[in-house]
Amino acid sequence: MSTSTAFAKARAEGRAALVGYLPAGFPDVEGSIAALRVMVESGCDVIEIGLPYSDPVMDGPIIQAAAQQALDAGIRTADVLRVVEAVAATGTPTLVMTYWNPVERYGVERFAQDLANAGGAGLITPDLTPDYAPEWIAAADERDLDKVFLVAPSSTDERIALTTAASRGFVYATGIMGVTGTKQATAAGVAPLIARTKALSPKGGADLPVGVGVGVSTGAQAADLAAYADGVIVGSAFVRTLLEHPGDRAAGLAALAALTEELAGGVRA
């Protein structure tokens, strides 16, 4: 299933999609596969798999701690793609969220092809803007991969129009100004950005869903945001749940399932 199909299915059910994030290789490669599969089974419509990186400008301390564990354990891009393949095999659209440097070092064409071969749906690229992405856009378009770019409350109308025109799958609206896991997004705070993004999207946003991330951690928040957004993106809350259960994988997975079910109930409220 493609990302756009998952959003369309959620829309047909009168709800927002739940997008869940974890970094690959946390707590280890097999552990991240198990955790992501639990998130799928418990209600995530789309999965984001983080490619751990040493200079994550958007990530707050919670995601940084998890990514550092993966890096310390020797995670490689090939491992990330193995996680993608395992999760995509569930039939759930599976994107990689990555900073641009690792893709450039791996080789843009090679990365795009290997991602497609693994069944990946596309990339979310927080530090890459469309005007600096011609190589990625060409490689993605050749393989029908999603290109998810970001807009923020500070984005100008011109920037939002440029970003939505280049995005495919959905556009990622950051609910707050700041890094992940440090502040809470509010529906009132992010509603103007969602409205601007939809108004400035091709066809008035009819074909491009808007997902809201950064600052969502509870079912109640998910429900509030789902009244405005097509998708609710959660990352730090999932990571925190696993960090709170070091050395007890069964307890961590049970807590992860409970949180996913709460959030899935929120987007359906």
Automatic annotation (TrEMBL):
Top EC group: lyase
UniProt key word Amino-acid biosynthesis: yes
Matches recorded under Pfam families: Trp_syntA (PF00290)
Enzymatic reactions: (1S,2R)-1-C-(indol-3-yl)glycerol 3-phosphate + L-serine = D-glyceraldehyde 3-phosphate + L-tryptophan + H2O
Key words of the record: Amino-acid biosynthesis, Aromatic amino acid biosynthesis, Lyase, Tryptophan biosynthesis
Active site: 48 (proton acceptor), 59 (proton acceptor)
InterPro entries according to UniProt: Trp_synthase_alpha_AS (IPR018204), Trp_synthase_suA (IPR002028)
Pathway(s) annotated for this protein in UniProt: Amino-acid biosynthesis; L-tryptophan biosynthesis; L-tryptophan from chorismate: step 5/5
Enzyme Commission number, as recorded: 4.2.1.20
Subunit and partners: Tetramer of two alpha and two beta chains.
Family to which the UniProt record says this protein belongs: Belongs to the TrpA family.
Function statement: The alpha subunit is responsible for the aldol cleavage of indoleglycerol phosphate to indole and glyceraldehyde 3-phosphate.
Full protein name: Tryptophan synthase alpha chain
Gene field: trpA
